[in-house]
Design brief:
Rossmann fold; single chain; Helicase, Ruva Protein, domain 3; 44% helix; alpha/beta; 218 residues; 10% strand
Amino acid sequence: MPQPTIDDLPLDQQHTVRTVVARVAPQFAGTFGAETVERFVVDSMEQLAPSARVTKFLPVLAEKFAKDRLRALARVEGRTATTVPGVLFLCVHNAGRSQMAAGWLRHLAGDDVVVWSGGSEPASQINPSAVAAMAEVGIDITEEFPKPWTDEIVRAADVVVTMGCGDACPLYPGTRYEDWTLEDPAGQDLDAVRPIRDEIRRRVVELMASLHLQPPTS
């Protein structure tokens, strides 16, 4: 199937995409041309649209997703000087376990790591109990959103951590994989999600040690 182009979109969405591209392209000047940026913005909108709960937020989410993908592509193609490890967390809906893991790693490791998350069947929103559980420990994941995994992000990751997505999870030779068996927080209340959150933190700390990242002091 040919990749969608801006001309395939309704006129109002074409205007929106051009506005987003005008905002994003300068951030990748010297790395990618406007045509590449446009292609990724259009494709990101197409990939997020099926699970979008409120379509008026779709351009904002597509912009964030496209930037993550472009940074990953720059990493894969050697267009960036970054040497920090990249970690991708994958689950089915990218609404609970993978989002909490990504939140923990960003919080604990900061700029010493690049973090992505994705799902094989993205949900329409993050699990509210997961958001509340992370807020209790001072980590805000309200700005995150479920998204699919993409080829360039998987290829950019040094470590791919899977959480229950089974055969749907992508496999690339030479990439380090870990499979974490964790209870699914979907449909569970806050009391049930807290121990899942804490177990994810323990595993993230172990992962950091294996990547020679400074572990937290407490």
